[in-house]
Amino acid sequence: MQLRVNDVRMSLLREKTLKECVADRLAVRKTAVRKVQVLHRAVDARKKNNIVLLFHVTAEVDVPQSVSRKIICRPGVSEFAPVQPGVPELGEVPMKERPVIIGAGPAGLTAALELAKYGYRPVVLERGRNLAERVADVERFWQTGEFDPVSNVQFGMGGAGTFSDGKLTTRVNDPVMADILQAFVKAGAPREILTEHKPHVGTDKLRTMVQGLVAEIERCGGEIRCETQAVGFSVRNDRLTGLLLNDGTVLATETVILACGHSARDTYQALASKGVGMEAKAFAIGVRVEHPQALIDKAQYGDFAGHPRLGVADYALVYHTEDRKRVAYSFCMCPGGQVVAAASEEGGVVVNGMSLYQRDSGIANSALVVNVTPDDFGTDPLAGVAFQRKYERLAFTAGGRNYKAPAQSVQSFLQGTAPALRDAQLRMKEFTAQYRDISGAEKTLLSVNGSVPSYRPGVTECALEPVLPSYVADTLKQGIHYFGRRIEGFDGPSGILTGVETRTSAPLRIVRGADYQSVTHAGLYPCGEGCGYAGGIMSAALDGYHVARAIMKKYKPF
């Protein structure tokens, strides 16, 4: 009999195999459990003195029928029935031209893969360079401060997620997620993303995955054109008829998936000039905070910090002001990672976080951001873009107008004193040097360039309040004090802040209807994070999948 068994608990205090834990959960002999396959794995660290690994599994169990009836009655136990992938419903309307996808990020690539698999031969336009050239361009920027507006952390093959933590988590509960993860594994992602509660690939393995997705799209008949930007939109009778490209040519098409990413500000402007329906939306801005990873591990896992089955610890923190108007929260937390320069325009400083698959830099970083709404920056659809740009330029000036970022210690930010960056650097190194994990191995403090702050091309020691709205700075101070009560040392002397973080999500939404098309322009399908319909790699990929399926439901393969 094959069962699905949820909530199988494995304590780190006792050495038991997963089969033994499943047998305990079902109250049967260990020999009765023939085969176990993990469906889901999570860590329950609520009790620091007894951290537990929590599994959902399938298990082949050999027991008498009388016993099997009792087992099935247990909470969280059921007969296992594999879910078969659904076959898409294909439409009958002929396509006059090939469908076009603007943007080769997670939304665009997933949409392209789905269309290509079923014979629609999509054309993907990516404004940035191919992956190898892009990686070299970004590394040069980080080393020298030589910025390239065409090829950077925001623009190029793979989208902004290519230089990120590679987190594949989402709060969206959709059965399609499993199919998307399977496609990612086929493209080169590690298999554990299928089972981990917080799947992570890291920017290094994410690049391999992107190359695999591109190869599969092309194998299935799709086409990807790098350094090709849609700079204008041809419209007739409120219907899209073609795209004006940056080489001066016009690409005829009546079906465009707009997956441009949240930093394509010139694309927003071009759409607005054509009267495409869009609206301002809330987002968040703030800073990046860095701590010794050992501090976070100790706070989250206690004496189990460093246990080989746990890996590095993360956190998710939220603080509400008394009037409930403002929220300070951690965002895109990167254990064992680094802070990166993520500008997409000349004359602006933008920070973000990323980590490699091993998450072994010794530094924990996260965005600490505060919500901002159209009440703060105006209801014009492009007002949020102007708001972001204002603070990015202030940070650029404060940093020295050379893409160095302003930075200061957490404590000096809280106390309004001199930045004291050097003191925080020393305290971070001292903390890390003193801490040893339970295996006896010293926790070393390493970033890509061997220093903190880890932001490259470097930082300028200065106060961060002048490069933030006053209400954001005030809320961050309240939030950091509160977070210090949740994680010991969070507001302590080893923390470092770097600014500014402005690209948490799109500052506008391009409005679409139930058919996924623009409410004002037929044939235009707003999609993904850049159009206001996702917030991360997985939700963007999911949106790309559903937009592609909506097109397939209407049209015949090309």
Please work out how many helical segments DSSP would assign. Answer: 14
* CATH topology title of the largest domain: FAD/NAD(P)-binding domain
**Secondary structure tally: strands:** 23
Percentage beta strand: 15-25%
CATH class term of the largest domain: Alpha Beta
Q: Which residues sit in consecutive blocks of at least 5 with pLDDT less than 50?
A: 436-450
Number of domains: 3
Binned, the helix content reads 25-40%
Per CATH, the architecture of the largest domain is: 3-Layer(bba) Sandwich
Radius of gyration, taken over Cα atoms and rounded to an integer in Å: 25 Å
The outline comes out as: globular
What's the CATH H-level superfamily name of the largest domain?
Answer: FAD/NAD(P)-binding domain
Largest sheet: 7 strands, mixed
Alpha-carbon distance between the two ends: 46 Å
From the helix content, strand content and strand pairing, which structural class follows? alpha+beta
Would you spell out the secondary-structure blueprint of this structure?
Layout (H helix, E strand, L loop, with lengths): L1 E10 L6 H9 L6 E12 L7 E10 L3 H8 L4 E3 L20 E3 L3 H12 L5 E4 L4 H14 L31 H11 L15 H18 L3 E4 L3 E7 L2 E7 L4 E3 L3 E3 L6 H9 L4 E3 L2 E10 H9 L16 E3 L6 E8 L3 E4 L9 E4 L8 E10 L1 H4 L5 H17 L5 E5 H6 L5 H14 L24 E3 L8 H17 L9 E6 L6 E3 L13 E3 L10 H18 L4
Parallel strand pairs: 5-6, 5-11, 6-7, 11-23, 19-20
Antiparallel strand pairs: 1-3, 1-4, 2-3, 8-9, 9-10, 12-22, 13-18, 13-21, 14-15, 15-18, 16-17, 19-21
Helix pairs in contact: 3-6, 3-14, 5-6
